């Protein structure tokens, strides 16, 4: 379990990695960090969010009890293959990646037997990127998902759950890799597709002086990191395509209801959506 002597390394000081570092350091833990951008390391050092940092994964930086991989999905497996020989025996490794089936089995298949990778996903973020925007307060209203496999020990799973408690997440749950990716296709990826598509429906920039809160709220997540999200979408293509098809079917249903002026069906859809949405108002 986590104790005050537990040492952490954050690999990738972006928004989430920086927020992990800041939150852990504020709780009195020893935190090191690795990032290809030296400016990010210097920023975190100057802010007092990390004790040590560098652009190269040295043995000193990786002499820790837990590593958090805050990397893009396509980089995670490559990083583990390249640097796992430098990691201290017994280290528990976790991640922040938004898809799981495309990375977890491969990492666990190549991992040294004295290391353990327990995948997890903090359901938190902002429409900005970079360590300068990091803030552990984004975790307090957020959910934290652990996605263990049969290659994980109970001890390591509980360690990662303890990590979520240290960072003050609102709720921690377990899902299988497939359950996670299916869930994320609907709750996160489809919503981003809708927001992006709405902004791309036509050149609506001339409407900026007239818009209300409904449009701003609905399109907030259209401000999107094109490099990260294209990777996430491709790695979860099967589930996301299904969700898009289901959404298009529902849009067609609503269009037909409007075209035929079926007021009763339209009201039924409004009542159903209102009832379902109220479950999220907690």
From TrEMBL:
InterPro entries: 6-PGluconate_DH-like_C_sf, NAD(P)-bd_dom_sf, PDH_C, PDH_N, Preph/Arog_dehydrog, Prephen_DH. GO terms for biological process: tyrosine biosynthetic process. Pathway: Amino-acid biosynthesis. Keywords: Oxidoreductase. Residues 6-282 form the Prephenate/arogenate dehydrogenase domain. Gene3D superfamilies: 6-phosphogluconate dehydrogenase C-terminal like domain, NAD(P)-binding Rossmann-like Domain. One of its GO terms (molecular function) is prephenate dehydrogenase (NADP+) activity. The keyword Oxidoreductase applies. Belongs to the prephenate/arogenate dehydrogenase family. This is Prephenate dehydrogenase. It comes from Anaerorhabdus furcosa.
